[in-house]
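Input sequence (493 aa), recorded before submission:
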Amino acid sequence: MKDLKQRTLQSGVVKLCSQGVNFLLRLGSLMILARLLDPKDFGIVGMVTAVTGIFGLFKDAGLSLFTIQRSTISNEEVSTLFWLNILVGALLTLLCLAAAPLLATFYHEPRLFWVTVVLATGFLINAAGVQHSALLQREIRFGVLSAVEIVSQVASVLVGIGLAMQGFGYWALVGSAVVLPAVSTLGLWVSSAWVPGVPQWSADSGRMIRFGGMAVLNSLIMYVAYNLDKVLLGRFWGAEALGIYGRAFQLISIPSDNLTQATGGVLFSALSRLQDDADRWKKYFLGSYSVMLSLTLPTTIACALFADDIIMLVLGSKWKDAVIIFQLLAPTILVLAMISPTYWLLVSIGRPERSLKIACVLGPLVIGAYVLGLPYGLRGVAFAYSAVLVLWLVPHMVWCIQGTTISWRDILKASGQPFLSAIVAAAVAFVAQLFYGHLFSPFFRFLLGGGILLLSYLGMLLYVMGQKEFYLDLLRGLRQRSAVVEKPSVAVL
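Predicted structure, token format:
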């Protein structure tokens, strides 16, 4: 693929822009719903999604990764994967329906029964669009994917706010959650224009399932590890406590989730196409890794320094108890941004088994941290979660790059300049805040502080650290256009 660099850069920018729109939609929705609904409403839905979300990990059975990662794949193979996804989606819907009475009993909350029943429909709807999305990712058509995401997000937000304004309480959150996959799947079918054929079992089918199985098991372990805190808090500290913790967690996760979604899919698609070209594969990964850190670091600092203002502006005064939780969770933005790309690194070269082994170690460590922090309430759990991720960072990176063409020195070189720039910018913003912090309202205080932080960071990164030419090169690459527009068919991908 001769124009891979331009298509990757352009797709990355499109995804970043779309995720920026997605971020504003999610943030705006959260701001409005936090004022229309009570913490208990969020807690009721959170009790269900923290558990049923496990089923969501199986919605594609890891089969979309196989479609994207393969050097070549036929229409028959994709059709087989599609019907396997439908089968998995139907089974997940049935499991979720069976779990409804169990959740109501476990939490001693009868309202959870019908909430679970309605949310169960999303699994089958999601399954119908998995392979269509994977095919668009193979072709690096992230502009189309971004448009589908934005339209579905807008529809979800409008439904949620509309129901909340009509006084439907927690049902507004349920309705929003069901509309999102429905609109998304419809958009994927229309955009990809691919119609599945009759499934055909072959010798490669077993390999597809094994590949997908390892990816799903990895995701399952990490999902449990990253969400058991909400289950435990809901069970032992109640819906209101979970509502406060859950909104702080959601708010702190929005930046990292949007960045990961913007860059992860593009990075995986590009690395998969380059898996047989070691030099270009390494260059692409390190360049993308450096850009991800450069975008993540100022966000992490802003969340730590301006937590009071962010909570006040986004959630309102009745959520002031979420401030300390928000601050304690801030380091997770950076750590997850640093370790998430290594998953795409390993899967792109066909090593999902190593990622699974890493998950089997990290998962129990995170769960153990929750157990230790649980007696101390929300603060104890938040602190324990952040602490174990920070301590795990270096061992994780060493394990992931072992045996690849990427060395520890490469990682330090890619991350060192953004880190030094962030440290200086944080110091400047903190000192400045001491002088003007008491003079302005939360909005202007955050606006001024964020501006000082951003300008200090960019000045350090681009000029003092000499990264200006690197980013100018990226911009020049975006302006280039390939003379030949490639649009391969499924059979020759």
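Checked by second reader. DSSP finds 18 helices and no strands in the chain.
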